[in-house]
Amino acid sequence: MYQPHLALKGVLVVDNVSTGPSIGGLRMATDASAVECFRLARAMTLKNAMAGLPHGGGKSVLCADPQMDPKKKELLVRAFAHALRNETDYIFGPDMGTNENCMAWIKDEIGRSVGLPLGLGGIPLDEIGATGYGLYHAIEVAMEYCDFDLDGARLVVQGFGAVGSHVSRFLSQKGVILVGVGDSKATIHDPNGIDVEELSRIKAGGGSVSDYPRGNKLESEALIDLDCDIWVPAARPDILHKDNVHRLKAKLVAQGANIPLTADAEQYLHAKGVLNLPDFVANAGGVICAAVEYRGGSQATAMEEIRDKINANVRTMLEEAKRKNVLPREAALGLARHRVMTAMALKRWGIF
Ligand code: NAD
Question: What CATH code would you report for 130-283+324-329?
Answer without folding.
Answer: 3.40.50.720
